[in-house]
Amino acid sequence: MQVWEIVSIISILFTIPVLMVSYYQLVLFYHSLRYPLNLEKDTPVLTDYPKVSILIASYNEKYVIDRCVDSVIATNYPKDKLQIVFADDSTDETVAIIDAAAQRAQKAGIESAIFRRPDRDNFKSGSMTLAMSLVTGVYVLQLDSDSRILEDTIIKGVHAFQTHPDASFVSFRVGHYNRYFNYITTLFAISQDQGDTISKMGSYLPNFPFSGQGGYIMYNCTDIRKVGLWSEHIEIDDAKISWNLYSAGTRGIYLSNARIMSEDPETLEIWKKRAYQIQKGWTKIASVYFKKTVHSKDISFRDKFVLFLTYLSPFTNLSWIITSFLSGFSLVFGWQAPSSSVFSNPFYVIIVSLPSVVFYLSAFYALKVQNIVTVKNLIMIPILTYASACMIILGAIAFIQGIFRKKTPYFKTPKTGDKKFNKSVDYNKELKIWKVSYLELAFSLVGLFLGAYSLYAGVWVLGLSMFGFSILTIKSLNLSRLFVRRSNGGGGQIPAKDGEIAMQTFESIESGSSGIR
User: Fold this and answer.
1) Buried b (16+ CB within 10 A) or exposed e, 367-397
2) Could you report the per-residue pLDDT of 356-371, keeping only the tens digit for each?
3) Is residue 424 part of a domain?
4) Is residue 232 part of a domain?
5) Which region among 5-9, 304-308, 319-323, 443-447 has the lowest average model confidence (pLDDT)?
6) What average pLDDT does this structure show over 391-405?
């Protein structure tokens, strides 16, 4: 067997799972086009107002927690039917801020309770699970400290439960109150929009399983207590509980027209590390619950397949590394397949190219659904493909660590809310260079060489892909911190003019019901 044949076999083996994930996205895209866009479009009128608890997880969130509580106080749901429960592990001035916020909520007529403990066992998962002992509502709305609900969010969520009695959770569209702060937040927002539109809107009619997202989700308290809450520490607590709910034979509902606002990461490094934690958590969940799910009689074969396909999707990162670098080295060492091979067949080219077309179409549709098809946002779509490239190495490592259930430090995404608009805030103060960053740098340097050689050989697609991967990965590493000491928290400072524009964006979101400019 010749070397090119061995390379081809390896490439095909690693491409098949990627195509399975990609074509499932195609199926979801088709169903997202059929999603009833008028679902909860208008504020419904309820005849019954069950008690709703709002569970807010917090750990040193002094910049954002106040606005989260204020948004709950401003809701149009009856105040005597609301309860706020703080799952607070804070060790700084956030403690006093939450105490004051709880009193403010009580004065507004909302029952409030605070759960604190002497340690951080199981981190956020452990805190929320123990705090559920204080929850007395029929439903519980899980919020992160930077989440901000709109005035009709709770009513729409309750109405969705009443019209879908088989639902265990209602997932809301993620809004972005700093969407236009910089190009990274805009890219992240479009990426999130696309994910919500395809994976969640597309799951509604065929009733496919999908992962709920903590901070933007309302649960039926009875159902989540039956499946054990967030009792064990898995990095992505919402994905874990979603898996267990589907395994128990229940379903989730997604509301595209009801949103909860949040803060988007403002640097590639934070976005990448956040994505790493999500992908590691998803893979770990699939590994932990593999046997239990396979033998479950409460879930169909189709839904089992969809769960594994969704939660093991981080494998695509490992696949990209192997196939792309093999292709690059094949050019260098002359291992290319002959022109008569399957790789030159037009049918094969169409099969592997179609997912890219779907990516662009689905991103455009995500913008169209929200009425934000602008020139700026359209330009961001092709840039998004390159921004995602910087996360490939960490994504591959996340997959491997998740499969083998490796324990790693918990990454807390830093949040600064609107404080960044009126004072200097060091957005990067909680960030450290990870040891794996050196591995990312090594791959990037090799990628630059392979990219240059590919362009020299006339293989433009591979060359541009490798260059984009390498350059964006290096940029996301913030390697300057290895050599230069930052002064005055440079990662969080912005020019006054940009701050003024960002503040206008923030205020326009707060004053409207849609959060869309």
Assistant:
1) bebbebeeeebeebbeebebbbbbbbbbbbb
2) 888 899 999 999 998 8
3) yes
4) yes
5) 5-9
6) 90
